[in-house]
Give the backbone structure.
Amino acid sequence: MPSITSQYLARYRRVSAGEGSGDLLPVTGAQRRFALVRSLDPAGRPDVVPMFFAFPHGTVDPERLRKAARRLAGRHTALRSRPAVVRGTPVLRDGEPDVRVARPAPAPGEHPADTLRRALAAWEPQGPPLRLFLVRDDAGRTEDLLAVALDHAVCDGRSLSRIADELGAAYGEDPAAGDAAPEETAAERAAYHEAVLLQLAAEERADTPEAAAYWADRLRTVRAHAPLPRPQRVAPGTLPSGSAEAQLPAHDGGVPFPGLLDACRAAAGALYGPDLAVPLGYPWGGRPAGAQAVVGCFLNTVVFPAATGHGPAPEATADAWWDDLDRADMPFDAVVAAARSAGTGWSGALDGLLTVDDDSRRPPLRLGGVEGREVHVDGRPVRGPFAVSVTQGAAIRLRMVWDRAVLDDAAAHRAFAALTESLRPTARTAR
């Protein structure tokens, strides 16, 4: 039987062969996952990835920023292409760059962060994939907030630093400069198209009966254990998500990834109870061999079956993780299909998500020589029960967010305490 990736490629070739379909581009397995998530959302909302920056009041020129963002989108196929489904086949539809700088007006007494939250919550699903929101602090006249927000289907974590860097560079160009030259746009489009086809070829090679059997066995006891969303959990006037953060000492090598997985296992145990196999997801991968470093969405979501309770020894976690990485190119939807075909009953829902970043990889956003300070805007809706982000550098910065319609604050804080405590011995040993 043809693999999921082979079936997708065959469908894409059919829909892109017709007249007037020259603007259609294939999507990676990671993008297919986001297309599925979007299709299951009642409002059709995509996953949105925002970067927030605080600038001294009045230092950002909105029109200059709009032109810079338009040039940036013109140079990168993914940033001007909109996710679509054509005859049941997920694709990207290449188009003209369409980037605006929205300037939402604060409600009376509203802080800029509240205004940004409200603006992002009103995200129009059919709009462009790259959007900018600038909120001026005309009351306090201290700092303005800028959100650079993207549909997750067109970018992954490895694209964000490049987007910030190139947006700042474009802002520094002559404001009278036009859009990217047609030959530059065509060359990048060809490079993007080739990169996606190389990624799909790698996924097709990874989508084997042997890998399917491995994941079916690996996930045979997995179930999603988070309670169903209950909007009544969220009191009127309460933000839809909660958050907690901490900082631990680190060393040059950071905490090994299996140690982070064990810490998330401890958090899952505090949330869902002992003696369970809880599905946690983490992004992994990169651009395929031989591909240019294009902006896009290439990181696959790998599933880690976290055994709650005391859990395995750290060495066992590391050994299992290395075995997983040998099959990490098998796309998420194929892994779910393999697990379900073995009768696990797992729907593909994740109880938690882990992302890891290196603070040296994210350059600051500089606009006209002024450096923006990256900040968090808490309280935005989150897609899953809980998500942990770890930034490694001079210190280990931990951050956890949770959906208040699924988890109550007291339980989430207990889980974050378990997560943090699990990492303290690792951080001390690594010093």
Observations:
- The chain has twelve helices and 16 strands.
- The longest helix spans residues 182-206.
